[in-house]
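Protocol step 4 of 6.
Sequence for Peptide hydrolase (Schizophyllum amplum) entered exactly as in the expression construct, tag removed. Do not edit the line below.
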Amino acid sequence: MLWPRFSSLLALVLIFNSVHAAPSQSGDARLIQFKDASGDLQTEWVPQAALNYLAGSRGSVDRTADIVADMSSAALDAITSVNRGPGFLDVTEFQNTVTEKRALKKRAYATPNPSNYPFLQDTYFNQVSADGLYDIVDVLSNNFTTRGYHSSVARAPALWIQQQFEGIVGSANVTLVENSFNQPNVIAKIPGTNSSEIVILAAHLDSTSGDPGSENRAPGADDDASGISILFQTAQILVANGYQGSRTIEFHAYAGEEGGLLGSQTVARQYASDGAEVVAMLQMDMVAYQPSDKPVLTVLTDTDAALVAWTQDLVTAYLSEDTLHTSTCGYACSDHYSWEDNGYPAVSIDESGPYDSSLNPYYHTMQDTIDHLDFDKAVEFVKMGLAFVVEQAA
Ligand SMILES: *[C@@H]1O[C@H](CO)[C@@H](O)[C@H](O)[C@H]1NC(C)=O
Ligand SMILES: *[C@@H]1O[C@H](CO)[C@@H](O)[C@H](O)[C@H]1NC(C)=O
Ligand SMILES: *[C@@H]1O[C@H](CO)[C@@H](O)[C@H](O)[C@H]1NC(C)=O
Ligand SMILES: [Zn+2]
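Step 5 output, structure tokens:
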């Protein structure tokens, strides 16, 4: 997950309004431009909560190209602290292409039905492994000092993920999608047998403990090595059982999420401009901090209502012993928004919402380490990954 980091910004803030459509349920985020600490112009979608604060402290900003000058660093820090939620969407490098949201291509989904796929609960679910998840998070959070997308070692974790996926689905089924920074996205596929349509299960591979350009330790065990571990194990179980859907199943590990959904925007924009048919996208961002007695699966309800409702039904149908929680995250809290912005149905399941009291208190710090996580509960997210892709790709 990400939160807006205004503290490094400098004085000039331009507010854009009517020429750009708002990216989500309109009005909850706005496109702004500002100069960063290096004097470079940045263009970002910023959540309304932050702008409300800005308006409260600076007067109205609800005008086209309103220039907010001489903002003190204290004011910027205050915005950050009142808005410790998600998130901003950095569109600086895309501003000459499309900055408007594409219309959502709505879909109808058949009600989840475990009796259609008895092999899931009879076989696949029994193959989930808490130790397997632990081992992956251990490497990602301990063998790499940081996975910060602007660090000097940003590429290494992506290449390790590529190698792991090649071992699972075969090298011809794995590709890197490069970004403007030195950390690629990794995409692994299980090709469908009879359809060009695609189902996506995703997580982000980068980490942060404040500054994604720093070389400081940023273990990101929960955020989001835990999500990557779910992708690997879901793919492993499908391949071990020789599963192929009629639709293609893709596993996406995104770079630069903490920089404003950078890698997922690159990928989603590419798919949209290629006319790819993505029927459903599921993001898992922070799944293994589980302080309750029972595993908690939180469906974030901000995106496409049909897929959100279907995903809640999926949790209830397959994991009735667990706690289904719903929460909101506001605009652009994780990579599923890049898909929603490009017209594709997308949803996120996580351990909690960013405003919930059960949010991992260590996230975005050097203390986001493996010892705070509970993999016996996180295996439930592998079951969800399996059920999601099998129900959608069958
Ligand atoms: C991770 O580090 C451990 C301990 O140093 C080492 O034994 C292991 O081989 C490393 N694994 C990878 C994948 O680099
Ligand atoms: C790609 O995946 C398909 C489906 O699992 C598999 O049949 C094929 O062998 C894979 N390709 C390679 C080169 O491993
Ligand atoms: C492929 O899909 C089409 C359209 O959904 C269907 O009519 C056809 O029977 C399918 N073929 C196979 C081999 O499953
Ligand atoms: Zn995250």
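Step 6, annotate. Confidence is low (pLDDT under 50) at residues 4-27, 57-87.
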